[in-house]
Amino acid sequence: MDRREGRSIAVRQFHDGALRILRPHYLDDSGQVCYVIINPGGAYLGGDKYLIEVDVAPGADLLLTTQSATKIYRTPNNRAEQSMHVRLGAGARLELLPDPLIAYREASYGQVTTVEMDPTASLVMAEVVTPGWSPDGRLFRYDEVRMRNEIFLGGHLRVLDNLLIRPGVGSPVDSMCFMGEHTHLGSLLVVDARVDAALVKELRSLLAPIDPQGQLGITLLEGPGLALRALSHATEHLNKILATAVDLLRERWAGQGPLNLRKY
Prior knowledge:
The chain has 264 residues and is mainly beta. The chain is 12% helix and 41% strand. A hairpin with a 3-residue loop joins β16 and β17 (225-232). The two termini are 27 Å apart.
């Protein structure tokens, strides 16, 4: 990914196997390019292994999303895995905003995202994890969802974000020591030199009316950056929390309006 004549463009792209990339498009006049990853197979299955590599050149600006939810079906023998390697040059910007991850009954999934970024680059990445459902409304119990984010600045590991959800038999997600009575989890990870305690305080005030029960926490990272976690009973609620936070950062740092991916 490079920036030429005021617009970010892909100088090289390649896809093979079950993942595909839709043609680029521009959501506004900022020059930021948006790419959409799709899975023609419809879901991840046991033994599937996916590799995504993204290289954003100095000054380039990329929004990367998915066409629809990432679905993990039963993985009876081997778990499904996804590895993503991201490189961000000086002044580069990446917004990684996929649709929710849905893990169905007896699903096991591992995801590792490694980001190597210049200290002047900007990274915003969101994730929502939700259990699959059945026609009678009962939630399925997936076996495991493991998500690990490793952020390197200037060659040094500065942020390590490790999430493991393992409901299992006899250890449901509604355990008091895990997610309480909640079933959905949202995460937002921001690594940017402009993050400070004042921004974290502003986000807490902005998001409090959306989350009246207080099932949300924001932590200031030494990256510098911030990590947000939110619990809910519904994907829509988490999407609203994450979108509100992302829109604030987009307006504050890039002068862009609220994000509208126009998928639905």
